[in-house]
Design brief:
The chain is an alpha+beta fold and 710 residues long. It folds into four domains: 74-196, PAS domain (Beta-Lactamase); 204-286, PAS domain (Beta-Lactamase, 2-Layer Sandwich), CATH 3.30.450.20; 385-485, Beta-Lactamase, CATH 3.30.450.20; 496-700, Heat Shock Protein 90 (2-Layer Sandwich). The chain contains 18 helices and 21 strands. The strands form five sheets. Strands 2-1-5-4-3 form a five-stranded antiparallel sheet. A five-stranded antiparallel sheet has the order 11-10-14-13-12, sandwiched between helices. A hairpin with a 4-residue loop joins strand 18 (632-640) and strand 19 (645-652). Helix 2 (8-73) runs antiparallel to helix 6, helix 3 (76-87) runs antiparallel to helix 4 and helix 15 packs antiparallel against helix 16. The longest helix is centred in the first third of the chain and has 66 residues, at 8-73. It is flat and about 145 Å long.
């Protein structure tokens, strides 16, 4: 074994030997399996042909026997003489003559019909055998035999069964024996001669020396005159093919036969006979040609391999000589002699290799010098970088080197850090972050832009941006870590985030509100479509305009507000009511507006439904509270209560609402909107009818889904 690893010639020869043997094995294996597959298909074809032929022969044998039975049953002489036997006294001369004549007739049929073994006639009642070609069976009774019971109603073929008299395998065909008028007189039954079936089934022509065909009935017993019953297999004969065929399947495959021998087989389910027909040949005989072919290929391959090995050895010796010279030169270079040269002994690829080796050593010498300079540069960068640079072992986390930047950032001296871990000097502010850092480096090999808090020697904490990579020093894994102090950047970032948050709110709210307003407008127009009639179309149109203006005022307040998420609800109500007075042409000298609203900033999701409620109730007061231009007063109040609850009050000292008016069942669109919007806010609505009309609505701030700010 040592020779193989130390000798180039030995390795070349060994490699070619292994390759050659592998090729021989693969070719032999493939050839064997290809031949085996081809043989398998050929055997399947042969077995398929054999079993199909036997199945046809069995069908033909059964059909011939069936036709013979029909011929006997339809014979006029058999009918007439059987009628005498059925209906005349056994003591009469006519009975004896009919018995003798029918015996002769049945014997005539039996002698010419070789497929029949016994012909006999049974009475219609009781199943008594009145005449048979086997005289020992006459006067016997068969009332419980299946062929008798079923043969009384029609022509049947009872599959092979053990005879209750002889115990031997028997197959019976039976049918009603009718008189000339078509009435049943008795039953004609025939036991078949099974020798013909055995000749058909057991014939092994074309199946080789181990080929075998056999029948199995539904009780898992062999069916033939030579092998019948359960003497050989008391629990029945079972194989995967037999079990599958008994379930009604037909197919083929490789399996173990009833004797446990691997075989190639075809199986068929013969429904008419209630049996399965199986044809098999052992796998040993079937695949013998494939094994012989594989063995021949192996022997030829081994001989060729021996010749190839001899040639390879001679060639390897010639190739190895200049390579060994290059090897000697490489050993010297490895020892540090970068000036050593390899002799160029040939002009082929080996010679080119020697020249390339010499050029490589020259470049290697140059790279070595460059590496020394690079090492100096690295040391310069390591020590002069303003960032903190450390190197620690991956195994235990102990520092082996720290940069001047680390010392300046943390206040630690090298002797306080080297040989210790970050936990020992409490450098990492959060030990969980340190643990995740080491796990990520170990799993992925590097970490980029990880934010973490670190503790200086004086106890103060700074935020650092950590990047690390896994390196190998002296064949051990180490972590090279760079930490940049980003404390000032984090402060700037926080200010930028606040500014960006305001702009995000602006963009989100503008888009969201425009969408919601369009939806509200669509809903209002849809509701109005159900209430419009020709008399009030202009008034309804004005109401729709006021509702749209109510929502538009929200956007105007939003655009003008410093806080882009909220509106000043007192200013909003002032603008809204002024617009309504102008819209309805109301003079403040006649109707005085008293506004008592606290300066409360309200989110738009709450301001819009509140504004619509104010619009509907003030519009209702302007239109109906003061008929005939009477003087009056409208009061609007808005204040904050405890636990984040608000109270919106809208009232007038006009004529008031009808006493029988139920605001929750009114058909007026305006009041319907008031109740719906109150429910949307999750609030409660109270109505005071004393001295006019006052609506009080209590609610909490409402947010549309996905718009709440924290």
């Amino acid at each position: 074994m040592k020779l193989i690893f130390k000798s180039l010639v030995a390795r070349l020869v060994t490699s070619f030997v292994i390759l050659t043997l592998a090729t021989v094995v693969v070719v032999s294996y493939v050839a064997y399996h290809k031949a085996r597959e081809a043989l398998l298909q050929s055997i399947y074809y042969t077995l398929e042909h054999s079993i199909s032929h036997k199945e046809k022969e069995l069908d033909r044998w059964i059909n011939v026997a069936r036709q013979d039975v029909i011929l006997v049953a339809h014979s006029t002489e058999v009918r007439e003489k059987a009628r005498v036997l059925f209906f005349k006294s056994e003591e009469s001369q006519e009975y004896r003559e009919a018995y003798l004549g029918l015996t002769e007739t049945l014997g005539f049929f039996l002698a010419r019909m070789h497929d029949l073994k016994e012909i006999f006639i049974l009475t219609d009642v009781g199943g008594k055998i009145v005449i048979s070609t086997d005289k020992s069976h006459e006067e016997d009774y068969r009332p419980t035999d299946s062929y008798y019971i079923r043969g009384r109603t029609g022509r049947i073929v009872q599959s092979i069964y053990p005879s209750p008299v002889t115990g031997k395998p028997t197959m019976t065909i039976a049918m009603p024996l009718l008189n000339q008028l078509g009435y049943r007189m008795g039953v004609l039954a025939v036991h078949l001669n099974l020798n013909m079936m055995d000749e058909v089934v057991l014939e092994a022509a074309g199946l080789g020396r181990t080929g075998e065909t056999y029948l199995v009935d539904m009780l898992n017993t062999f069916v033939s005159s030579r092998r019948f019953g359960r003497q050989e297999f008391p629990r029945g004969v079972h194989t995967s093919a037999i079990d599958a065929a008994l379930k009604g399947d037909s197919g083929k495959g490789l399996y173990l036969n009833y004797a446990g021998i691997p075989v190639v087989g075809i199986y068929r389910h013969i429904e008419d006979l209630e049996m399965v027909l199986i044809s098999e040949i052992t796998q040993e005989e079937a695949f013998a040609p494939a094994r012989k072919l594989g063995l021949s290929i192996v022997l030829v391959g081994l001989v060729m391999s021996a010749l190839i090995v001899i040639c390879i050895y001679i060639l390897a010796r010639r190739i190895a000589r200049p390579i060994l010279a290059i090897t000697d030169a490489s050993v010297k270079v490895a020892a540090g002699d970068l000036k050593s040269k390899a002799p160029v002994l040939t002009e082929d690829e080996i010679g080119t290799l020697a020249q390339t080796f010499n050029e490589m050593t020259e470049k290697l010498d140059g790279l070595y010098q460059a590496l020394r300079q690079s090492e100096e540069h690295f040391r310069t960068v390591f020590q002069t970088s303003p960032d903190s640079i450390t190197i620690c072992r991956l195994e235990d986390g102990k520092y082996i080197n720290v940069s001047d930047g680390f010392i300046q950032q943390t206040g630690y001296e090298p002797e306080n850090v080297l040989g210790k871990t970050g936990l020992e000097i409490t450098f990492w502010s959060d030990t969980g972050t340190r643990k995740r850092f080491f796990e990520e480096v170990r799993d992925t090999g590097d970490v980029s832009n990880l934010e973490a808090d670190f503790r200086k020697k004086d106890g103060s904490v700074f935020t650092g941006l950590v990047s690390a990579t896994l390196i190998r020093l002296k064949d051990e894994p180490h972590i090279l870590t760079i930490i940049r102090d980003i404390s000032r950047l984090k402060q700037v970032e926080k200010r930028l985030q606040v500014s960006l948050l305001e702009k995000d709110i602006l963009l989100k709210e503008i888009h969201h509100r425009v969408k919601n307003n369009l939806q509200v407008i669509s809903g209002l127009l849809d509701l109005q479509a159900h209430h419009i009639n020709d008399r009030k179309s202009r008034e309804i149109y004005k109401e729709s305009q006021n509702r749209v203006i109510t929502m538009a005022l929200i956007h105007e307040e939003l655009y003008q507000a410093k806080d882009l998420a909220k509106v000043n609800f007192a200013e909003y109500i002032q603008n809204l009511t002024s617009n309504l007075f102008v819209s309805y042409g109301i003079d403040h000298a006649n109707v005085n507006l008293v506004l008592e609203a606290e300066q409360i900033e309200m989110v738009v999701d709450t301001a819009i439904p509140c504004g619509l409620i104010v619009n509907e109730l003030i519009s209702n007061s302007l239109k109906h509270a003061f008929p005939r231009n009477e003087n009056g007063e409208i009061r609007v109040g808005f204040r904050a209560l405890k636990d984040g609850e608000y109270e919106l009050t809208i009232g007038d000292n006009g004529i008031g609402l009808p006493k029988d008016l139920d605001i929750y069942k009114t058909k007026t669109l305006g009041l319907q909107l008031v109740t719906v919007l109150t429910e949307q806010l999750g609030g409660t609505l109270e109505l005071d009818r004393d001295g006019g009309t006052v609506f009080r609505i209590h609610f909490k701030e409402y947010h549309e889904a996905g718009t709440e700010l924290h």
